[in-house]
Amino acid sequence: MAQLRQEVDPGEAGLDPQVLGRLDRNFARLVDEGRLPGFLVSVARAGRVAHLTTHGLRDIAAGLPVEPDTLWRVYSMTKPVTAVAALLLVEEGRLSLDDPVADHLPAFAEPRVYVGGTGADVETRPADGPILVRHLMTHTSGLTFGFYHTHPVDALYREAGLESSVAPGADLAETIEVYASLPLQFEPGTEWNYSVASNVLGRIIEVVSGQPLDVFCAERVFGPLGMTDAGFHVTDAQAPRLSEMYGEKEGGGIEPIPGLPLRGRPRFLSGSGGMVCSAHDYHRFMELLRRRGELDGVRLLEPGTVELMTRNHLPGGADLRAFGSRPAHDEPGNEGLGFGLNCSVVIDPSRTLVPSGLGAFGWSGVATTTFWVDPGRDLTVQFMTQVRPRTSHTVFKDLKRLVHEALTDRRSATGPGGE
User: Is the dihedral of CA 342, 347, 350, 351 positive or negative?
Assistant: First the structure.
């Protein structure tokens, strides 16, 4: 077990300690007000952790504190990891972004697109073209989530038992078959809609590699990167370090709620949101991307592959705001944000709702976890807690604003651990 530690003084890394203190007090206040159980935040420059704070509790009832080695359900922060796993196969020539999904999953051979109607009266037509692997990774496939409650196709997902994205009692392969039986919301490649696509991508990884998703990730991503606590379940030895899950109560405050079940290997391996890890592990993953595919002498991906992953792929070069009629992940705001391969990317800092660096990329999880990498500033940031909000909140926006304010040196940092 490895543990994240502060490695350098903030001032040496171009960060203002007073502003970082204000950042800590801001989130400590949310704990004191009963809006968060506890949190961990880390800020690194040039690969060295310059600020690391833990505050509050990982288990309120048991009185157990958040510690650097606490384990977190990162939910949708799994998606960039799944993208890296798929890109390993792309570099090996075993998979192509332009492969039709049906080449690997025949159930998707004849996709149909929603035309009109609801329920049993839904009208569909054959899609003009196939769903491609790149459509899965850019969320332009036409797939959706059952919990949106905004479109007739969402309702079909719920009728099929996909409210939580997994068919009851099914494994990944069985659930993918259910996805394939349902119509797409739109023609593949034409719009953006955050969806179950990363589960489909996870199944393609299994088919192409011949290994279960958790085994492939352990052998090809987690092991080489020294992500010693990362996985899709926790062992008996790890379980005491796992944070409890909380949800916002309607009248305010938080209460325990069921979280992603992690004790024992799950039947359904979710490339969309099934991962658990420590802050040390996700720091290692962020650093792999900041260093363009290499970490501590281990090269997982070529620099050009990471550049491809973190480039905007939305139709017409648009930002996420162009697809505002579609349900979107709870980001600080979609203006100025494009989307790469399973991560958002800043394409116009002047239009983002919070200070952002051009080319900064990252993603968040439904339990109020988030990360981003700002290559231009040699900056990596993560925030971990375990609260599912009922409505939108300002945690991510406040975090980005305060980290930006703490930067005293906005040029690329240099020093040990840098490139």
Answer: negative
Pairing assessment for the beta strands 246-248 and 387-388 based on DSSP bridges: parallel
pLDDT of 192 higher than 90: yes
Q: Which two tokens stand for residue 213?
A: 């998703």
Query: Could you give the CA distance from residue 196 to residue 164 in angstroms, rounded to a whole number?
Result: 10
Spatial separation of the C-alpha atoms in residues 167 and 177, rounded to whole Å: 10
CB 152, CB 123: distance < 8 Å: no
- State how far the Cα of 120 lies from the Cα of 230, in Å rounded to an integer: 43
User: What are the CA-CA distances from residue 220 to residues 16, 26, 276, 367, 406 (Å)?
Assistant: 38, 38, 17, 27, 36
Average pLDDT of the chain is 93
Lowest mean pLDDT among 140-149, 323-332, 410-419: 410-419
Which stretches of 3-111 are assigned E, i.e. beta strand?
38-45, 48-59, 64-65, 71-73
Question: What would the DSSP string read from start to end of 87-139?
Answer: HHHHHTTS--TTSBGGGT-GGGSS-EEEEE--GGG-EEEE-SSPPBHHHHHHT
Pair 364, 395: CB distance under 8 Å: no
Distance from C-alpha of 185 to C-alpha of 135, rounded to nearest angstrom: 13
